[in-house]
Amino acid sequence: MNKILILAPTLAFVISGCLSQSSKEAPVPEATLPEISIDNPADKPMPSPSTVATAASHCQEGEKVAFNCLVEEGKNLSVCLAGSHALYRFGRLGDIEMAYGSVENQFRLTEDDTGYTLFFSKKTHRYTVYEEDDGTEGGVEVTLPTGKLRGFTCQNEPLGDGLESVKGSSNVSLGTE
User: Fold this and answer.
1) Which structural domains are found in the chain, ordered by start?
2) pTM beyond 0.85
3) Which among 2, 17, 82, 92 counts the fewest CB atoms within 10 Å?
């Protein structure tokens, strides 16, 4: 402890000496920085938030976020619109565990008094992505061939335009479950 107290004044003296020497040198001209708008750095039209892929979704640049939320185990559930078709992606960001959707992969969208549900099957598993009518809750349920159910509930309020926004997609049909 005594050594620190003894060194502190010495260190302060050395630092002040360095500062006083640099003040005797010629002044350094200030750098001129270009003006950049904070709200829009590139001064380009800003796209709507749902068309911008964010770090918090699996939707890629140019895809529209229809539905996205964080679920258990730090994984993300994303339903994206790529042109005229819907896509489903699930897993940790940067590590997609399961993806579904192309022109050939079909989804079925239903609506009832509780909200929208998007169904699809892959191999022997049936997936049910759901969103409550008020858009505050959602998740996915996976039914295994044994009939066992595995669910992932959104930990945050889902983001995006909502499951309803996939209605016009070429690989989504409307109807009953």
Assistant:
1) 50-174 (2.40.128)
2) no
3) 2
